Amino acid sequence: MNPQFLLSKLKLLTLTIFTLVLSYGVQASHPSLVITQSDVLEMRKAVIEQGSFATAYGKLKAKVDLQMALPIEVPVPKDGGGGYTHERHKKNYQLMYDAGILFQLNQDKTYADYVRDMLLAYVQLYPTLDLHPARKVKSQNPGKLFWQSLNEAVWLVHTIQAYDLVYGALSAQDIDSIETKLLKPVALFLSQGQPSTFNKVHNHGTWATAGVGMAGYVMDEPEWVEKALYDLEKSGKGGFLRQLDELFSPQGYYNEGPYYQRYALLPFVTFAKAIDNNDPQRKIFEYRDGILLKAIDTTIQLSYDGLFFPINDAIKSKGIDTIELVHGVALAYSLTEDPGYLDIARHQDHIILSGDGLKVAQALDKGLAEPYQFESVAFGDGSDGKQGALVIMRSQLAGDQALLFKPAAQGLGHGHFDKLTWQFYDQGKEIVSDYGAARFLNVEAKFGGRYLPENESYAKQTVAHNTVVVDETSHFNGDVEVGNLNAPTLNYFDTNQFGTIANGDISSAYPGVKLERTLALINLAELEKTIVLDLFDVRASAEHQLDLPLHYLGQLIGTNFELSVNTEQLSALGSNNGYQHLWLKGRGQPEQGLAKVSWLNENGRFYTHTSLVKGNEEFLFTQIGANDPYFNLRNEQGFIRRVKDKKQHQFISILEPHGEYNPGKEYTLEAESKLTGLVHGEQGDLTLIKITMAGMPYLIVVNQSADASTQHSFQYQDKSLSVNGRLAVYALNNF
């Protein structure tokens, strides 16, 4: 036969095969989402070698093997969050995902068969389902397997990866059944079936677009990918990319706050990884100046001692070891090889079985971790970064301390009415506290595991936070839509050797009222102490009652003024806007001068809050728990500084950590406040605070001018002084 003819036939056959591979590329290259074929080859080598990756593999295999020995359960949906059927379906998608990974690593078809059998059980169940029976009556996004479609989307994000991992072990008949009767119906239900949720710029929309987009890659539905990226009409008004544009500030801060930043992180990084593996030309990790990497790093920064700052609807026990951030840190290290991320990974103590997880494991085994650097930083809020900011101040002078200041945007439906509030942390504990969310997550016996009614009636209300309440009415009159349209202004943020300071204001929380607050975490180097300076100015066009609550964690030690205490009968402080949930336990009105309230925290330190008062402030001591028939609220303590009939008022105070109480060794040190003097004055744009601490006089200078870029000179006690930037501290004994 003519050699040229054979060569032309061979070329034609090669071209045909190549065309078929291109036409059916998805089917020919499983897995191809977060874990790729090249990842699998490297991971298979690692599991047979000594190291933390092999250890993680062994632990997961033992865990999955125990579950696989039990019968597969795919129950008819019945329960809300935390109920048996809800939790069973959650366990199922995790089991399928884990078994799929094990199949890829050890090539034991038993694991693929397990995933197949569970998927086929869902194939039998899913077509029979109507909307979930436990859905909320007014809910706009019910699921079928779960009471809300958010959980359905989470199910798809995990299940489509499991399917991708075992695809090569399935028969053509099983593939057809699983795709046509289960995965495609779920994807269509979450997209075309719920367009308002799918197109929404919100974490629910993120999960939905991630699940549907990944399903599009696996099942060769490129149109689904486009709709996931750009919304159902491919208009760009919604979809994954619009979520990246609008939900994060340019610094990577997520509009709903740290708790939901953590939760939304997993679909963001998972879908982005799938996009990068399937459509690298999109350069998703370069999108918006690398916004996803910034978001991962910001999520870490939004924590203290391993737990996220609990603003907005936050569960206070969530921290950086959460699985969403485990995936995020693995991706961040894979992209940057920054050894600081290994420090966080070491703290998380959880190696994920993926290509990125393997890089982390091998680097940890080599001892490459270096301390992660937590910083004082102001994270601009809103898509443009100009809708206020969330401010973190940190100091290591007297132990690990952090102050969180919140001149930030509302945070959508999960936001709380708490403009200009603050929290303080010291030696690993929350000192000046925020309630977080009123919810027992997935505890079905408590309102189905959903947000409790008291989340609306107390936790979101302004009096539940550490900021000014005007006429016992919450900011924006408790209207979320109005709150979302109005954000505070961060006027300045500065950090230097004297400490960190920030100032914010808002004039729309109440009609005709301007609220302005300056907070500073100040280093007193000579005493090796820190203090918190708080200046809260209220200016109004009419007279109002002004309340400034402070919620603290610990046992009240005492006050330096007399209290009238209710010992036999308690009544609620008010009738609505959160006041109905506060027991009034006592009250007092300090004389002009310094009013002190001291408490002892479980970290063994004392804290004294010293206020500069004029004799017209009443202190109301409260405990949460009134009008709480089902005991849903935590019984935490607080006090409220109240003035009446005021157009203008300035609340001035200093928080001072001091001393130590050690019950084990039976000693107490410095239980009394060392602050004996506090004088406030103004000199042009400069605020001058003179304090006497442990017998040592200090002058704290705050530059409130519009421009702090140049040095400001001033006279004080016949001496010429200056301030660079916003904050200066002078030890007057050194003069």
UniProtKB/TrEMBL annotation:
It is found in: Periplasm. Residues 382-588 form the Heparinase II/III-like C-terminal domain. The keyword Signal applies. InterPro entries: Alginate_lyase_dom (IPR008397), Chondroitin_lyas (IPR008929), Hepar_II_III_C (IPR012480). Keywords: Lyase, Periplasm, Signal. Its main location: periplasm. Residues 73-301 form the Alginate lyase domain. It holds the Pfam family Hepar_II_III_C. PANTHER family: HEPARIN-SULFATE LYASE (PTHR39210). This is Alginate lyase. It comes from Bowmanella denitrificans. The lineage of its organism: Bacteria, Pseudomonadati, Pseudomonadota, Gammaproteobacteria, Alteromonadales.
